[in-house]
Each structure stands twice: as structure tokens, then as C-alpha cells.
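pinging the channel bc i need a second pair of eyes. not urgent but kinda urgent?? the chain im working w is below, pasted from the shared doc
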Amino acid sequence: MTDTLQKPAAAERGASTTNRLAVPADRAQGRRAATWTIAILVLVALHWVAFDATEFKLEKLAGGASGMARFVGEAFPPDLSSEVIVKGLEGALTTLWIGLLGTTVSVPLALVLAILGARTTTPNGFVYQIARGILSFFRAVPDIVFALIFVTAVGLGPFAGVLALILHNTGVMGKLWSEAMEDIDPGPEQALRTAGASRWQVVANATIPSVLPQFIGLLLYRFDVNVRSSLVLGLVGAGGIGLLINKAIKTFQFDEMMTYLIIILVLIVVVDLASAWIRKRLQ
């Protein structure tokens, strides 16, 4: 009786095994693996070419260790004389003013180009392309290149640095603001259009109020960046403490240069803390 019951069960298992379908191979997984392999090989090849093109050789760094040690030895202790500290503080304030004006004076032009360069607020496609083209140009040209141009035009000094930051910051902020306008909830804008509001009334009463917190946050971020950028602009003659650092390096006054670097560190920390405090108060 037991043998009789076991035979059908065994036959059923055999039929189940025979009828079981083979699991097809995951072709997508194979393609992903091949794609990742090719991408890694291409990345490795690009790095190999980049290392060779830039003459990236650690033995050169090791060979220059004695020169670096001599540089550090001449930079310490820093020159803390009152004359150097006063010059450094004056240069730091000039650098701060360059960053401030380069940020705030660019706001009107950046706002106009942002409105014209956002798909939701631009009058038409032609104006959109023109505004985007201007923003791309201002953003693509580095601020240090603008500084070199304006140093040639208006001479050495902080004015050239302010002009350079105004143009470059206009391109960056205009792009960021236009993207923020395109990402807002369209509900308030549609409600005003339905009520008969004009394009500019919609922008003034719905678009800008909706993105105002983002505008302020991006503006504070750009101020922080522009203060740092103004340090570099001073190296090409655009005034500020960067110009003092350049002079100290050229005259081999490395202890004086170190004093200026310490002042820069304090300035950057103060700007960071002030920006963070303002953001917190606005939330």
C-alpha cells in the first residue's frame, strides 16, 4: 500500500522537474557590467594622459622638499609688527568691500536676465535665448580674466576687481535664479493669470515672492565666494590684500606674507559665521 502511494508522488516530482523552465540570463545586468568596465577603463586612460600632460610626478615634489622647508622657515614666525598688521587689515577691508560690491551691484542686472532667461517668465523664445547667451558668456569667462581686462582699462586698484566680480557674478546668479523661478509651484502664477494679471504683475506678485528665500540664500553664498575670489583678483593688480601678498612674495618677505594669510583666515571665518547667522535668522 505504501509503495503504491509513493509511486504517484515520485512520478509527479519527476514531471515537475521535467516541466520546470530554465531561468533566462539577465542580459541587462551583463550590459551594465560591460558599460561599467568600459567607463572605468576610459577613466583610467584619461587619468594616465592627464598625469603625463601635467607632468604629475611625485619625485619632483620630493626633490623640492628642501625648498619648501626653507620657505616655511622664512615664513615663521610671521611679521607681527604694527605697520604690517595695519596694512593687512586695510587690505582685508578693501577685499571685503570688493566682494560686497561685486555681489550687491550685480543684483539688478542678474535679476533682469534671470526673469528673461526663465522659461516661465520670458516673453518669448528669442528673448530667452539672448538672455541665456549673455548669462553663459558672463559665467564662462573667469573673474580673473575680467580683472585683467579691467586692470588694462581702468588701471590697477580695487575698482577693476569690483567690475570683474559684477560681470561674473551676474552670470552665475542669473543662471541660479532663473532655474529657481522655473522650479516653483505654478499655482499662484496661474491664479493671477486667470484673474487677468499681466506678465510683469505675475512676476512681481507671485514669482519673486515664491523664490525670495532662495534668492537671499544664493546671494549670501555668492558673497562668501566673491570675498574669496577678490583675494585672487588682488594677485593680478585688482587691489585688496591679495595685492599685498603678491608684493610680499615678489620681494621674498615671506614672514610678512604669512601675516597676511593669517588675516585672510580670520576674515574668511568672520564672513562664514556672519553668513550662517543671517541664513538662520531668515529661516
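so The two ends are 82 Å apart (CA to CA). and The longest helix spans residues 199-234. — does that match what u expected or am i reading it wrong
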